[in-house]
Amino acid sequence: MSTSKVVIVTGASQGIGAQTVKAFLARGHRVVATSRSIAPSDDPNLVTVAGDIGEPDTARRVIEAAIARFGRVDTLVNNAGIFIARPFTQYTPQDYAAITSVNLNGFFHITQLAIEQMQKNGSGHVVSITTTLADQANHNVPSVLASLTKGGLNAATKSLAIEYAAAGIRANVVSPGIIKSPMHAEETHAALAALHPMGRMGEMSDIVDAILYLDSAPFVTGEILHVDGGQSAGH
């Protein structure tokens, strides 16, 4: 891209988030990266903010860092998320609190503040990472709380896309299948690969490429882009 953007990435210390940060930096963009345990940065194009994304104060500090360092917010990648696969009746109140804090509160607070900044510029893009299980449940992967929260983000994204279309702000979703990342131990890969019609797990680069595509597609908004090896198509 010829124009440098200011991009916020949540859940940025490892996995898809960390790869997303690298990809945007490699394309000449400036990035504000946040997670609970993220390390300080010496890169002039990267500022890091440590904190719990479910807390309003973290969202405020991230936006303030973006404005103080780079002067604007162009793109927000809502990557932070928690997934706990367990039978519905076995979820604990602690599970529920943790999942809703990161998946819902973590979306709400920072997206609200980011869109306020985007409105000042007359443009912007919010892309959120959800899960294909919200569209196509699988009895091998109990996932009610993932569907409750990430499915909610799918619906909220469509609402955001319509509400802010005239303001020049787009909202989209990348909906992954099961991706090779630090979240999944290597000994589980064969079983997880078999859950996809294409017979393999996705790579982190598959999701990063989808994020980059959506960010560079000015006529695409309200889209739920499935990157799931065919899972959402059926079984």
From TrEMBL:
Annotated InterPro entries: NAD(P)-bd_dom_sf (IPR036291), SDR_fam (IPR002347)
Classification via CDD domains: SDR_c
KW Oxidoreductase (keyword) present: yes
Ranges that cross the membrane: none
Pfam families the record matches: adh_short_C2
Keywords recorded for this protein, A-Z: Oxidoreductase
SUPFAM superfamilies the UniProt entry points to: NAD(P)-binding Rossmann-fold domains
Superkingdom of origin organism: Bacteria
PANTHER family reported for this sequence: OXIDOREDUCTASE, SHORT-CHAIN DEHYDROGENASE/REDUCTASE FAMILY (AFU_ORTHOLOGUE AFUA_5G02870), SHORT-CHAIN DEHYDROGENASE_REDUCTASE FAMILY PROTEIN
Family: Belongs to the short-chain dehydrogenases/reductases (SDR) family.
Name of the protein described by the UniProt record: NAD(P)-dependent dehydrogenase (Short-subunit alcohol dehydrogenase family)
Organism: Paraburkholderia unamae
